[in-house]
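Technical appendix A lists one of the benchmark inputs used to test multi-chain prediction within the project. The record comprises two sequence entries:
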Amino acid sequence: MSRQPLTFDQNKLTDLEQTVQETLAKAQTQGASAVEVALGLNQGLSVTARLGELETLEHHRDQGLSLTVYLGQRKGSASTNDLNPDSIQETVTKAINFARLGGEDEAAGLPEKDWLATSFPDLDQHHPWPIDADQALAIAIECEQAARAVSSEINNSEGASVTAHEGVSVFANSLGFCHSHLATRHSLGCSVLGRRGEEMQRDYWYTVARDAGHLQAAAEVGRIAGERTVKRLGARGLSTRQCPVLLAPEIARSLLGSFAGAISGGNLYRKSTFLLDAKDTRIFPEFIHIHEQPLLPGALASASYDAEGVATRIKDLVKDGVLLDYLLDTYSARKLGLASTGNAGGVHNMTLDAGNLDFNGLLKQMDTGLLVTELLGQGVNLVTGDYSRGAAGFWVERGEIQYPVEEITIAGNLKDMFQSIVAVGNDVDRRGSIHTGSILLANLSVAGS
Amino acid sequence: MNDLLQHAEQTLLLRSGLSAQDLDKVMGRMLGPAIDAADIYLQHCRTESWIMESGLLKQASHSIEQGAGVRVISGEKTGFAYSDTLELPALLTAAEHVSAIARQGQNALSASQSQPNYVKRYPAENPLTGLEDTEKVAFLHELDRYTRTLDSRIEEVIVHLAGNYEHILVMNPEAGLVADVRPLTRLNVTVIMVENGRRERASMGGGGRFDFRRFIDGKLGEEYAREAVRQALVNLKAEAAPAGVMTVVLGPGWPGILLHEAIGHGLEGDFNRKGTSAFSGKVGSQVASPLCTVVDDGTLADRRGSLTIDDEGVPSQCTVLIENGVLKGYMQDRLNARLMGVAPTGNGRRESYAHLPMPRMTNTYMLPGEHDPGEIIASVPDGLYAKNFGGGQVDITSGKFVFSASEAYRIENGKITYPVKGATLIGNGPDVLTRVSMVGNDLELDSGVGTCGKEGQSVPVGVGQPTLRIEGLTVGGTAQ
């Protein structure tokens, strides 16, 4: 059952760059005044073990080429995952034909040339994991075993999975930008079920990194998944109340995700955000600082250029609680009369500065309130800031977890929620493009039984 | 059905220089002594998307996606690989990779059976070419103009037209070589409205397995525009939603997302085979009030969730999930049906060739009851009327589910009094339907915009229900 995944080499990069350049040239020959082309190729392995045995073995290989062409101020786009010359030709023709139908949009176009990235530091993104299916299976089995060994109440499993991925992406535009980069992404996760009487609960844990050497150990991932599941058994409802709420780091991340959405260019120029015209105003308490660290070596969302080739930059988004900057791509920047902030495609390691307290310290500070460890649903309205989501977690008294709670909602308005942050933990979760510790909110509406 | 097969062979095999014999060769490479099942899935999909904003055609995009997935199953083990080139060497390599999962074992794959008889649930025509591109653009301009005339408080209008045309070819020893050709289109109108400095956004859309032309002929765009404006105006006046447990009346149609989240996912075969669903082992028990009969029906003509055959070549069917409150059965793909010793139900679906099939819903809805909807609202002394919803989510193990109201009203003394802001409703799947106390006679299906996500895979689905009165759902508002 073994197959050593191949690693991309320099020849492959050269091939792909050539395909991209040829596509770009084709589009120009057909009349495009400006073009951008992106090409990605990913391959990998994913192995899942369930109840101690192999459940699925998947070999992945994905490729795709996408291009955007401009005829003056008119734009057309097309993509294909079939890279034979005929399909690429058809894709170019489609994009040009669609651009002919497009409206004259004065904000349309490639980035300004001086916005483009010119330096490409090594961001430590490429660490192929030379693992075969048998080795991956052994890790998954070890992980799941550790989870099931946590307690006799753990009686079932959704399995443990190991993935190893490697990708190459090339981006070029007709301003002369052409760059490619290699990146890897590996993960290990486990999800198990516990039963107590009629009640069943499930929880999970995972680790993800560019370098497999930075993954949490299999036994540790499994143990945490098992412990999280067992802790949820015995869940009760909670009566409707107002109380302090502590968001665990993986949940706090989604609150910051809503913040990122509210200051993103698309929502700003459409005036569909509750943070419209909020720049230079205090939207968080004074002790809150949020910045972006695009060049963090080894981090999952590091990049020296964004999805349009624009240089990313280290920047303060919020300083002393005051909103200083937006997240803009080229189009939204032009609509707003500003410069791109290098955020086409999202944020790069957006970081909420950690406070002094660890997780237990925050529980003590909260004293009595709700610890949220899971959110359900999408009840966030970025236009108004209205927020209402399903939740599960733990009731806390005197700084100690008392019992798990479920079938409740938390609700408020994001504007008020941002202002009501009283502390940020140093238990920072870096498993995504947003890095944050736990966040303690002074007061929120909790609805329940 | 032969025309479908011809159609698909043309697109998927001839263009790539492949033949049915080549697929046999690939299948031969996958089959072995310990293999219980195997399939080859070829797919070609063209997608178009047109976005009108600020009165301009801003985005027009086209994409081609094609590839082949090969899978072998041995007991509960699955090996899977895919290729985005439809060439014999790539398929043979993929086949070799997957057959590695079965090194030992003694089962043998049963011989090929006869080709089942399929009923086409939608036309096999290309929905993208029913209108010329210039006609699409003219239609979008006209709809944008029309929408802007509806109300002076409209600040922005976004119209999105999208469609895809998909060919699939499935080969497995049970069904032989079978094909489907699937059109799918969708139109959405979004408005942003402002009044006294307050801003709201609302969206309405619809679609199905039909041609773009139907949006014009049926004047559906205008209908969606009026509805989006109406919803935005309601929300501009909405007050804080209540917090706590109350009687909730759900409107007909799209609020059927309740059924999808609260019980639908919990009745998918994979979760029940593994015993991870709150509904595991409950076939034959009373899981809903006797007023409730719920089906999953992939056979409805032209619906977004409908399928002629599923992605494993099984004809779609109408599966009774709950009858008069009693759980009748689960939705199955081939793998889980075989392991549970039941027949597949035509619910084996996959997002694409690059994803593994799983049991998924098609169109899930509740059959009508006998109450007049007005009578149902009049029966509630104090509660919430939730007319429309955004999305939802469920934890199938604990059974807890949520869905978010996008248009809701307070009911006081049997009357709808004022609109309240969108709030999340949360409940417990295995018992929510036991609290259904009245079922309306007004069954409606949704307009055709649903997309369901499961384990990272998205597939189009439909939902529907009549007006329902449910006792004791938790409403996640902020009003004290």
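The CA atoms of residues 150 and 227 of chain A lie 6 Å apart. Confidence is low (pLDDT under 50) at residues 1-5 of chain A. Comparable benchmark entries are summarised in Table A2.
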